[in-house]
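Posted in: Structural Biology > Protein-Ligand Complexes

Title: Requesting predicted complex, fe (iii) ion in pocket

I'd be grateful if someone could produce the 3D structure tokens for the following input. Sequence and ligand are given below.
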Amino acid sequence: MRILIKNIRGLAGVYEEAPALLRGTEMNRLPVLENAFLAIENGKIAMYGSMDDWGGITDWRNLEVIDADGRFVLPAWCDSHSHLVFAASREKEFEDRIAGLSYEEIARRGGGILNSAERLRKLSEEELFEGALNRLHQVTESGTGAIEIKSGYGLSTEAEMKMLRVIKRLKEESKATIKATFLGAHAVPSEYKDKRRAYVDLILEEMIPAAAENGLADYVDVFCEKGYFSVEETLEIAERGSEYGLKSKIHVNQFNATAAIPKLVAAGAVSVDHLEVLEAADISALSGAKTIATALPLCSLFLGIPYTPVRDLLAQNAAVALATDYNPGSAPSGNMAMAVSLGCIKMGMTPAEAINAATINGAAAMEISDSHGTVTPGKKANLIITEPCESLAFLPYSFGRPAIERVILG
Ligand code: NIG
Ligand code: FE
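-- Reply #1 --
Done. Output follows.
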């Protein structure tokens, strides 16, 4: 199957040879080729160019021609942080928060992650898969072409592996590219309440080996936060992960500054995620670092907590990604276009910075930059075609209703 998209008003994120990621001031540069065409062959980007140089088509066999007159084409979203596999929604907690309870208070009363774990353990693997596949369809239809999905609502070896097997099946069934992250250290399950060290040991000795040896995980994650896992435990789990070939992507500094970020950067974490509360030492550790700073604005919006200080990170030459954090507790939405809008509206990013954060840098935060995140010959043809519009800024401007007309995955 071949596709030709012609009369593209602007082909965005286009590079003959793409960088792996963008940082600091580079993030404000989004290369756009005006009045362009793009050819796709065997699911990959074959070539692109200006309509003025287009020689026409000689071989029309198996060719779908899309006339993108007045529309922009850009790389599909790369959502590098999600918890898309879960058993049930938690709108009761939403009402509790409206009534004045905080996320932490709800968690202390047995809600939150433990609530999700209780529900997930009872659900069959098949039902869990079906629910997740549904959500995956929703997010791919809204423009997501690659997504990281975490475990972390099982909190026992059996239930964590059940989640990871579901993610593996999603990888096999979906046209989207998926990375799996083991997040056994999401919360201490109630049966280990009075013996938390035993739970950390279970993660180290049983869960990580099982996840890695069965090829079920690409990364390891920890919820490094007061009341969840300490900096020392986080580093220990990340270290064990790396012994098993799993690099780390870590939830950190969501509600409290933890002093973990410089250590995680030094330990080679692929990304540190959330970062709503940052101190000067954290920002300087991320300055020029390989570790990507991932902001999750849908979570900030939904919980009413601070937004990641992205301008400070960019001023210090950090590489910033935007992701959804799609999960039933703190961000029940997988809408990347909305994350891009909030990046602009609430975090002061330019449309170019926000789109780069949601494409090329999201790809880097899943280590798939060689095949995703830009419009580059040889990369997977995961693309968004916008509605007719004057400029790409229309995308974040049109908040809450993605101005996306068509999504092509492979
Ligand atoms: O990224 N902070 C930790 N984990 C999720 C929320 C999990 C939940 O509430 O179910 C997050 O916000
Ligand atoms: Fe998360």
